[in-house]
Amino acid sequence: MRHNKLRTALTGLSVAWGIFMLITLVSVANGITRSFAEDMQNSSNQKISVWGGVTTKPYHGYREGRDIRLKDSDISIINREHKNTIKEVSSELSGKQSGVSTNKTYVTAGYTGVFPSALGLNQLEIVNGRFISDKDLDNNAKVMVLPEEYAEQLFPPDGRNAVGQRVNCAGLSFLVVGVYKGRFRTIYIPYTTARIFASGDNDIDEIILHLNDVSEITEADGIEKSVRNTLAATHDFDPEDNSGVWIWNAISQALTVQSAIGILNIGVWVLGLLTLLSGIIGISNIMFVSVKERTHEIGIRRAIGAKPMKILTQILVEAIVITTLFGYIGIVMGTALTELLASGIGDSMFEGARVDLAMAAQVTVVLIVAGAMAGLFPALKALKVKPVEALRDE
Amino acid sequence: MIKLTDINKTYPGAVPLHVLKGINLHVKKGELVSIMGASGSGKSTLLNILGILDNYDSGEYLLDGTLIKDLSENRAAEYRNRMIGFVFQSFNLINYKNAVENVALPLFYQGVSRRKRNLLAMEQLEKMGLADRSHHLPGELSGGQKQRVAIARAMITNPSIILADEPTGALDSTTSRDVMELFRQLNRQEGKTIVIVTHDPGVGKQCDRIIRISDGLIIPDNSIITSN
Q1: Strand partners for A93
Q2: Window 362-391 of A, Cβ < 8 Å to B
Q3: How far apart are CA A229 and CA A295, in angstroms?
Q4: Any idea where the domains of chain B sit in the sequence?
Q5: Statement to judge: residues A228 and A169 lie in one domain
Q6: How far is B182 from chain A (nearest CA, A)?
Q7: Is pTM beyond 0.80 here?
Q8: What is the CATH architecture assignment of B31-53+72-227?
Q9: In the structure, what pLDDT confidence band is assigned to residue A344 with cuts at 50, 70 and 90?
Q10: What is the mean pLDDT of chain B?
Q11: Which residues of B touch A387 (CB under 8 A)?
Q12: Are strands A88-94 and A143-147 parallel, antiparallel or unpaired?
């Protein structure tokens, strides 16, 4: 090896390239996995949303093109028929923008009537006080939960004292029971209270099914189908008519993404390892050449007392050292690139795309195994060299 | 020291080649002998068997009281390492290792630590008068120097016998004389048993005894006299 530095370096580069590809691919895949995994942890994924639609098939004497409107009663019907599979059925009712005021100041805000489960489904974080409770719904209580920003504006300077204060909204006095932090900026009030404010009919926009720990796509799809059947029966439309009600199955979607990520992860390892394989074959090749060139030397070593095992380990160690050395060059290059992606682009997808210790360990194991594989066959060939070779003239 | 009894060796093949046809040979401890013979006489095969580099088919080979027969690769390597010092025609030094490392190599295979084996190798080189060349690579040494490094390597394990295969074959006459002188010195001062395979009569003359081999058989001493 030492005598043919250029040859070794060129072949080594293919190993470095293989590892570089492996590291980069795996890091990016890890980054993608991590950014999805963060979403995945939220209970917001354990939900199926239903909206009223327009029929496209005639059914029971009705013509197609009929509007299906969800009613308050649908909530209790679904609740009753799917008690075993659905944790909670809820809805949201949004009101118009209206003024919310204290005796000193006011803000203009929209309100949303919700069930207690909205806390988890909308990924809200309660900063102060509490969220809407079942009791609030039962009593049509005039209570509200403010977003942090409004609390600050209504109760300067920092809104900490908001809980327990009263504000006026739509001519009624509301008790502030909590302050939250979240993606939306709407005032939450009990669903039943919002229902009273809303116009007389019992139409609702959206029914939200809150599920618990569904981890199989088939299970999620099954629930979706049975809920559609229930609504089809209630509203008299064809259960096969998919546009009678619109259903967004967040669970199935999340699970699909999850399994796709799993496949992606396996895929990048396979791709990376295949790239590495070409490098290993290269190393194996030069080791063969090296053994051939050193037949005489190996003969000498055998003649002066090298045991076969010593020769075997010498060749193996050499292959492992070369592979690992160039492999680490690849690791450094790969790390540099992923760090660049993570910091330079600043895209959240590459945020987690960093080379971590666990991966460095995995790759080291891969390298040592790869080196051993590269050296094995040349080493076995070296074993066949007879000590008599030492007596042969070069 | 060396006792060969009725050694036979046949190389298998389409036409089996019966190379050694019952060799009987006795070399006493402290002897300096040469084995001479024309090429094709079985001389090299005999050397291979003496050096435990090759097996024989029948007979018995006792080296320093140890029966050398049907050894495993590992056992053969161990015996070669401890009992035999090889000196070759083309020196057979490892060209990317310097003189000290070359001399120390047999000790590496005995598991001696680097410090200790380099120290012992240095001692051997000093005996050969090569202390100042200890860190030179073989390529930077003259033929005579290389052969002396090779002899130092053969001596370092303090073997029972030194086996030399045409040790002067690649050297000029002056250097040859020096190397032969070195062998005689090792023989007389350290009592080493030395077997030199050669076809150079000049080398043969400097040994205590010449063993002649022809067509796979040792020629008895008295028959040489009559044939001459």
Answers
A1: A113
A2: 386-388, 390-391
A3: 79
A4: 31-53+72-227
A5: yes
A6: 21
A7: no
A8: 3-Layer(aba) Sandwich (3.40)
A9: low
A10: 91
A11: 53, 76-77, 80
A12: unpaired
